[in-house]
Structures are given as structure tokens and as C-alpha cells.
Amino acid sequence: MNCNITVIPGDGIGPEIVREACGVLDKVGAVYGHTFNYTKILMGGCSIDEYGVPLTDEALETAKKSDSVLLGAVGGNVGNSRWYDVAPNLRPEAGLLAIRKGLGLFANIRPAYLYKELADACPLKKEIIGDGFDMVIMRELTGGLYFGDRYTKEIDGVTTAVDTLTYNENEIRRIAIKAFDIAMKRRKSVISVDKANVLDSSRLWRKVVEEVAKDYPEVTLTHMLVDNCAMQLVMNPGQFDVILTENMFGDILSDEASMITGSIGMLSSASLNEGKFGLYEPSHGSAPDIAGKDIANPIATILSAAMMLRYSFDLDKEAKAIEDAVQQVLTEGYRTVDIMADGCKQVGTTEMGKLICERIK
Ligand code: NAD
Questions:
Q1: How does it associate, per the subunit comment (predicted)?
Q2: What's the gap between Cα 84 and its chain centre?
Q3: Is the torsion defined by CA of 272, 274, 276, 277 positive or negative?
Q4: Are strands 2-10 and 68-73 parallel, antiparallel or unpaired?
Q5: Whole-structure pTM value
Q6: Atom 4 of ligand 1, nearest CA residue
Q7: The ligand 1 atom nearest the CA atom of 337
Q8: Which domain CATH number covers 212?
Q9: What is the sign, positive or negative, of the torsion defined by CA atoms of 236, 238, 239, 240?
Q10: Which is nearest to 1 in space by CA: 311, 307, 313?
Q11: Under a CB-based contact definition with an 8 Å cutoff, are residues 153 and 256 in contact?
């Protein structure tokens, strides 16, 4: 297979972790007979330095023409950087919004997986963790409260702020289909999260999700109210396989789920469009505090590359080879400093990438 990938190293630790992820992809290519072609573009602070804007139209066009995008992270030290002394639409993170919008990425997937080797970093009690957990949160990314009309005005002499939460059936259907498709590749369970006891948009959500479920008889569908879901995530995380939810609920729940894994340097993510195109990136930011020191954990980005193989290129075996290599490295006791524990061997960014490459079979 021949895959054209737009690579966005970005700022901070971005270039270091993306370099390792590309190294792992190249090793997969060599072992399984695929070619990964990379085209680099600038986004974030580095693009501001070069072009005065966080994402140029040309860079976006390059991304559109490729098969998928691999992103490190963008942004600098928010309290102390020249990139933040400007209007919000010119800051590094505006590049992220622009590329997500420009590429039509409406489906955000964030896995939350607990490696048993890292269970001590999980803030939950051992009896709650049980055999661990392995879930993905499928969050609608371009609708709902964050994209509705908003304004603040005086009503009867009182300052009043209004945000509008809107979903139409097509927006719900397309994200539900993505969630069920992914459930088919996993343990075939979808828990759809809403607030149908209060919100009209949630009642429509539930109705459309039930319609979509009819096309997936092998997948079990359960509905859960969002407040209950927030509770269940810390009471019994093992029950979740695929969580399907709208934009704001997904924003909050995916952060909660990532925190119970205890290790931000391990968490991958993907944002997909209607078809197979996706943008793959770690869940963490650009970590300017550790940039250039060869100590960043590259695993979240490497696992994001594995997601790319699975969701954009249907290369399930190859994705699994990366995930198995990561698992093996952890089992052998190698750790970057953020996940270091007693009795383990500490390695840097480059060494971690190399160890994972060597274990791709
Ligand atoms: P952050 O995720 O960059 O860092 C939080 C903490 O986690 C830091 O102590 C950092 O050193 C550590 N950390 C993060 N990733 C790590 C890794 N791979 N290995 C080891 N340690 C790691 O969050 P922040 O400090 O709030 O944000 C820093 C910058 O990143 C800001 O400019 C922010 O806007 C930006 N940001 C970008 C994205 C993105 O590009 N998608 C996402 C979140 C934040």
C-alpha cells in the first residue's frame, strides 16, 4: 500500500515525538511492504514565526490532498510567549480549529486504556480497576453548544448570556455510524450518553442512535444519562467499550477518562471525516517545559499512528503490531520519565522510539 501522509510536527515536543512515530511507521512499512510518504507542513507557533498566521491556506490545501494527517502538538508557554500577545484567532491553537474545520473532522475518538504495568499511576482503587479497562470515547466535534449561536445582551435591565445547543438528525446519524463501525472492530458494545430526561436535542439523539443501531444487530446498544456516566467512569470503568456522545459531554467525559489512566503521555486520539480521512494526534499538548530535552514520551503519538493505520488505511494487523510492540516494551520495564517506576529502566524519547521499532514484527 502507498500512503501519503501530511506530517505536522508543530511546536514544543511535537517535532521530537512525531519523528519517533514516523520512524515506527517506516519500520511497519519495511516489515509489511507498505510505503509511507510524508509531506511536512507548518502549523501553530512555528507557522506564526514563518508566515504570521497559525495555518496558511497552502498548508491546509496540502493536508486536504493527502490520505491522512499526523500531528504532534501546537502551542507554547501560554503565560510567557510572544505567540499569545495577539488576537485569539492568530494564536497557535487557532491552527487546530482551522484544520479541523477545513478538513470536516466531525468525529473525535479518544481511547482510554489502562496498561497493567502502569496501574499504579491510575488514581482509582485496585478493586475498582479490576482487570483494567479499555474504552474509546466517540465525541461529536463540530456541532452542539460550542457551535451554536451565542450572544450576551441586556434583557429587562439584566445582563444575560445565551448559548444555543442544536443538533440535526444528519449530524447525529453520521457520528453514530462511526461509533457502531468502531464497535464492530472492538467488543461490540455502544453506550450512548445523553441527557434525554431534560434536553430535546438528547431525545432526538437517542431516537436517531436507535435507528442506526438496527443496522448493527451484533452490537449491543445501551443509553446512559451523562451524570450517571461521569459517576460510572470512576465506579466501574471496565463496563465501557465504545462511549458515543455529543460535543460538550464528550469534551468533559474524555478528559475524565484520560485522567483515570494516569498517564497523559500514553493517550492517542483521532478525528475523522465522513470517509476514511483522519487527523491523528496525541491527547496531550506541546509540553514546552520539557521540549528539546529528549525526555518526552513518544508513545501517545506512536499509538496515534497505529490508529491511523487502523481507521484510515484498514491495516488492522499492522496497527496491532505497533500496539503489541508498545506493550512489549512496557512489559520489559522500559519507561520514559513521566511513567517511571521503581525497578524500571529509564529511557529518553529517541531510545523509546528505537525500542518500539525493534519490536515490530
Ligand atoms: P501539556 O499536555 O502540553 O502538558 C501538561 C503536562 O504534561 C506538562 O508537565 C508536560 O511536561 C507533561 N506532558 C505532556 N505530554 C507529555 C509527554 N508526551 N511526555 C511527558 N510529559 C508530557 O499541557 P499544557 O502544559 O496545558 O499546554 C502546553 C501547550 O500545549 C499550550 O500552549 C496548550 O495550548 C497546548 N496544547 C496543544 C494541544 C494540541 O496541540 N492538540 C492540546 C493541548 C494543549
A1: Homodimer.
A2: 24
A3: negative
A4: parallel
A5: 0.91
A6: 287
A7: 20
A8: 3.40.718.10
A9: positive
A10: 313
A11: no
Last residue of a domain, one of 228, 260, 292: 260
Task: Give CA–CA dist 250/243, Å, rounded.
Answer: 9
CA–CA separation, 357 vs 361, rounded Å? 9
**Cβ distance 205 to 172 under 8 Å?**
yes
- Which of 82, 271, 284 maximizes ligand 1 atoms within 8 Å of its Cβ, making it the mutation to test the pocket? 284
For the chain (length 361 residues), average pLDDT per consecutive 10?
97 98 98 98 96 96 98 90 85 91 94 91 91 95 90 95 96 97 95 98 98 98 98 97 97 91 90 95 94 97 97 96 97 95 95 98 90
Closest-CA residue, ligand 1 atom 32, reads 75
* Residue 212 · residue 180 · CB < 8 Å: yes
Q: How many domains does the chain have?
A: 2
Backbone dihedral angles phi then psi of residue 44, each to the nearest 5 degrees: 95, -150
Please choose, from the candidates 185, 3, 19, the residue with its C-alpha nearest in 3D space to the C-alpha of residue 109: 185
